[in-house]
Amino acid sequence: MGEVQIIGTGSYVPERILTNDEISKIIDTNDQWIRSRTGIGERRITTGENTSKIAAKAAINALKNASINAEDIDLIIVATTTPDCYTPSTACIVQSLIGASRAVCFDISAACSGFIYALNIAYQFLRNGAMKNALIIGGETLSKILDWNDRGTCVLFGDGAGAAVLSIGNEEGVLGNYMASDGRGSDLLKCDAAPVDINNNILRKEVLGDEVYKNSKYLSMEGKEIFKFAVKVMEETIEKLLEEAKLDLSNIDYIIPHQANLRIIDHTIKKLDIDKEKFYINLQSYGNTSAASIPIALDEMNRKGLLKKGQNILMVGFGGGLTWGGSIIKWCK
Ligand code: UT7
Fold first, then answer.
1. How far is the centre of ligand 1, averaged over its atoms, from the C-alpha of 38 (Å)?
2. How far apart are CA 279 and CA 257, in angstroms?
3. Looking at the domain 175-185+219-330, which fold is it?
């Protein structure tokens, strides 16, 4: 048994940029509202690549950064709200796209907390000696489940993927993990799958009626409730993580929050009196990419050379489920 470390990161976002001004041509919104209420300036939108393709590109970049071959990966976890299909898992498709023939593959559904959950799951497999190398990916094509008639949601989200390779080494690279869920809030942020019915088991369009059928396919959100929840659990998660790792905020070099809304981040900064400079924020360029938001940010920081050996990085996420959680990692590269 050894210690678990992140040895490489990667990300990929589709080339197509969708600006606030473009959205305001198809729906009643404007750049000023979106920027002032969320901080988002633009987002990336897939033009044909499904989640597995985007995730595989992020994965290949992470493998390169980690200097590890795909055949050496024992485990692939894809965290996604927007898989290619019900079955197979997106992770299995990624496996075949990148040639990681030895890996055990599965997806997890934990919405915007997905990458944090995946990190914790992979950590457990590595820490107990069952596996040596894990590839964890947060990948989304949220544009395919957005209702482009709903200005309360469609302006917020974007597509992309981020990945990390975890491996066994000598130094302790994961200092704390925290995960929590509350299914009582499951209706606050949701996207229905195919509905079932006791009469014929499959409710088709004729049975449901056009309106219900249409609405059932798209992401819906109680924005204000999610906002209140997010502010509360950001604070809770940061405090729990610091307690578990026996650290205080002065020991943390960077905080990577889930990139949902700048106002949520600002609330946390004020509430916990944290130096804003510690927060890495890129939601202005990508919007909310759900499970991909934290690993895209981590990879950007890595590529910009911001991460130095020995630094402590706190990651914190929240989302549908409801789910929330975080990790403190020590950068060991
Ligand atoms: O990964 C986790 C996922 N989600 C989140 O973290 C989202 C959390 N929630 C939020 O970020 C915010 O609640 C939103 C950004 C979604 C909405 O901001 P808000 O300050 O809560 O606005 P609101 O829903 O109370 O709407 C205020 C007004 C309404 O108009 P009236 O009723 O005051 O006339 C809305 O119809 O703003 C209107 N509005 C818009 N106007 C222009 C809502 N969306 C838009 C829009 N453009 N896109």
1. 9
2. 7
3. Peroxisomal Thiolase; Chain A, domain 1 (3.40.47)
Per-residue pLDDT of the chain (333 residues; tens, 9 = 90+): 689 999 999 999 999 999 999 999 999 999 999 999 999 999 999 999 999 999 999 999 999 999 999 999 999 999 999 999 999 999 999 999 999 999 999 999 999 999 999 999 999 999 999 999 999 999 999 999 999 999 999 999 999 999 999 999 999 999 999 999 999 999 999 998 876 665 555 555 565 666 655 555 799 999 999 999 999 999 999 999 999 999 999 999 999 999 999 999 999 999 999 999 999 999 999 999 999 999 999 999 999 999 999 999 999 999 999 999 999 999 998
Do residues 161 and 76 lie in contact, with contact meaning Cβ atoms separated by under 8 Å?
no
| Strand pairing category for 104-108 and 174-181 | unpaired
CATH of domain 3-171: 3.40.47.10
> From atom 20 of ligand 1, which residue's Cα is the shortest distance away?
37
**Minimum CA distance residue for ligand 1 atom 17:** 223
Candidates 211, 197, 305; CA nearest to 254 is 305
pTM over 0.85: yes
Same fold, 3-171 and 175-185+219-330: yes
Residue 316, both tokens = 């914190």
All structural domains of the chain with their residue ranges: 3-171, 175-185+219-330
Catalytic positions are 112, 258, 288
